[in-house]
Amino acid sequence: MSGIQVADGFRLITTEVASEQAAFARDVKAGLTAFPKYLSCRYFYDAKGSALFEAICELPEYYLTRSERAILERYAREMVAEMPEESALVEFGSGSAVKTRLLIEALLKQQGSLLFVPVDISKPALEDSSRGLLADYQDLEVLGVWAEYQEGLERVREIVSGPKLILWLGSSVGNFDREEAAQFLKQVREGMDGEDRFLMGVDLRKDRGVLEAAYDDAQGVTAEFNLNLLDRINRELGGWFELERFKHRAVYDEVEGRMEMYLVSTSDQTVRIDGLDLDVPFDTGEAIFTEPSYKYSVEEIETLVHRAGFEQVRQWLDEDRRFSLNLLKVL
User: Fold this and answer.
1) Is 117 left (phi over 0), alpha (psi -120 to 50) or beta?
2) What residues does each domain of the chain span?
3) CA distance 240 to 259
4) Which residues touch 299 (CB under 8 Å, ≥6 apart)?
5) What pLDDT is stored for residue 98 in this prediction?
6) 123: how many CB neighbours lie within 10 A of its CB?
7) Which residues of 226-244 are buried (b: 16+ CB within 10 A; e: fewer)?
8) Which of 57, 67, 304, 315 has its CA 20 to 30 A from that of 266?
9) What is the helix (H) or strand (E) element at residue 260, kind and residue range?
10) pLDDT tens-digit profile of 183-211?
């Protein structure tokens, strides 16, 4: 932890995320020299990528945000009903915290005041969303943690001593393979006490057509979001990617229960990245794997939860049974 900044009633704990540029360079070189090639989806969310993702969340094909919001609008009060007085609210990957407001309001109504601890890798997102929340909720205190999930877990253990409701909304668990997901949840559980609860969003298995449309929308916003990875390499690492020579591809692997996103070269080409002193060759049709998104059946969620040492307290689904929110406690 490198320090605490205080401004306008908002406290921010900073960590070693300041080395993000070095990590980006290291991971891009590793991914583009591997076979098959890959880039980590964690790097989608620079300023441009974050704005594009907010636009994706409003698309008609992208059911995930709409379904989760509907569950929260209907059941937020139930989700917090058993939390003890003076509980804190912690969120991993808080982003703009739009959906989180529903839980903030439910907790404020229940206990009068609230400490909100958002953990996010994007410092601007933390600052912007936290100041917006403080402007709207006078009985809210915000302590932001600028960190990746692992580092954020450690900081939360140090700074939140009382009962807490930990949120992992969206379907971020889907970006981990099933073994990694279980291991991460075990780490979350290790930092929890008996009164704590963990609320996790999980996207459900469903028809291929619905899934592939959600990740390859008619307006091309998801394609632009994916291609922004190459544009980010150009901007930050001196890359020479010609975006028009790559296309977005999204496919569903029904056996694995996994959506997959790729960037596919449309020609034989070699791309120079000056900042890495690297030339990257591509064959026509060669793909860069950019994101996995695992989907779960209700039974697979139960298996994951128990493998990680949790008990499922409640599960809520939207009316179309496309998405789930799962309230967990330590076994």
Assistant:
1) beta
2) 3-14+58-206+296-330, 21-49+208-294
3) 28
4) none
5) 83
6) 16
7) bbbbbbbbbebbebebeee
8) 57
9) strand 258-265
10) 999 999 998 999 999 999 999 999 999 99
